[in-house]
Amino acid sequence: MTPTIVRNFFNKRATRMYPVETREMYSDVRGELYIDIKECNLCSLCARACPAQCITVDREKMTWECDPFECVYCGVCSDVCSRNCLNQHDKYRAPATEKFRMHEQGEIKKKPKKEAGKASPPPAS
């Protein structure tokens, strides 16, 4: 037992001092969730596909909410998003002392009106 204690005393540490020392992220890591609300049409596909049910979409109030403490970082919501406005950073969420909810306020997008009955200009001669 004494040789093991002496060997462990002189070798480098087996653990790292988190959060001071962090490990490099793997390639294609699924990290913290973020949304580009300007591109979102609030279709609620992400909320229906989320296995943790941490996403709430309200089309009447034009709001998108996510509880990041319930999120399991599976990436299903970002895969299902038809507008590609829901993505994941390549790093994990930083430790927090208080819980919070991600709340985004959307805006009503109006479709451009087609001008009916507009004649094409006469050909130039």
Structure commentary:
With 125 residues, this protein is of the alpha+beta class. The chain has a domain at 26-105: Alpha-Beta Plaits (2-Layer Sandwich). It has three helices and five strands. It has helices at residues 2-10, 45-49, 76-80; strands at residues 33-35, 55-58, 63-66, 86-88, 102-105. The chain has a three-stranded antiparallel sheet with strand order 2-3-5. Strands 1-4 form a two-stranded antiparallel sheet. The protein is elongated and about 95 Å long. The chain starts with a helix and ends in a 20-residue tail after the last strand. The mean pLDDT is 85.
Key terms:
single chain; 125 residues; alpha+beta; Alpha-Beta Plaits; three-stranded antiparallel beta sheet; two-stranded antiparallel sheet; 3 helices
List the total number of helices. Answer: 3
Widest beta sheet: strand line-up: 2-3-5
The helix/strand class is alpha+beta
Instruction: Compute the separation of the termini in Å.
Output: 102 Å
What's the average pLDDT?
Answer: 85
Quickly name the level 1 CATH class of the domain at 26-105. Alpha Beta
Amount of beta strand: 5-15%
Radius of gyration over C-alpha positions, nearest whole angstrom = 25 Å
Query: Could you name the ranges where pLDDT drops below 50 across 5 or more consecutive residues?
Result: none
Strands, total number: 5
Helical content (DSSP H or I, runs of 4+): 10-25%
What would you call the shape? elongated
Q: Note the run of SSEs as H and E.
A: HEHEEHEE
Q: CATH topology of the domain at 26-105, anyone?
A: Alpha-Beta Plaits
Largest sheet: 3 strands, antiparallel
The CATH level-2 architecture of the domain at 26-105 is identified as 2-Layer Sandwich
